[in-house]
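Example record

The entry below shows one chain as it appears in the dataset: sequence first, then structure tokens.
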Amino acid sequence: MVITIQDDGMRFGCRVGAIIYNEDRTKILMEKQSEDRYMFPGGRIDVHEDSDYSINRELKEELNLETNLQLKYIVEMFLKSPKTKYHEIGFYYITKIKEELISDNFKSLDGDSIFNWIPITDLNNYKVMAKPIKEKIINDEIFSYELEHILYREYEN
């Protein structure tokens, strides 16, 4: 059972994501959510699951990928869409892999998602749900192993 709570016009969820660079750090692996929206590979945290277990489970289920991950960001996001205010707590891990391990337009093992390598120089042209992490990647502020807490608000309480 995933950690998600829904109420009238509001939603809360806990998520894990992987910031996966290619070896020379020129591209980032992204999961296509819709025609114009992308997310970092990962998914919802299940009840009684810690974030480390959850991200490893998600990467294995979707990409058949096992890699060394380091927790980089704990992100509290308050996002607003026309119909919903969304509060998410996310745990984002960082790693590098050989680009040839995951081909471009890779279809997830469950068939629900498509993954693409996006050049970092083009990342500004993509809608990414975790906007504050996208900005750090573009500005090359991300590749250290120091844990950071990010608070991002599109609306106030």
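Notes for this example: The longest helix spans residues 51-63. The chain has a mean pLDDT of 92.
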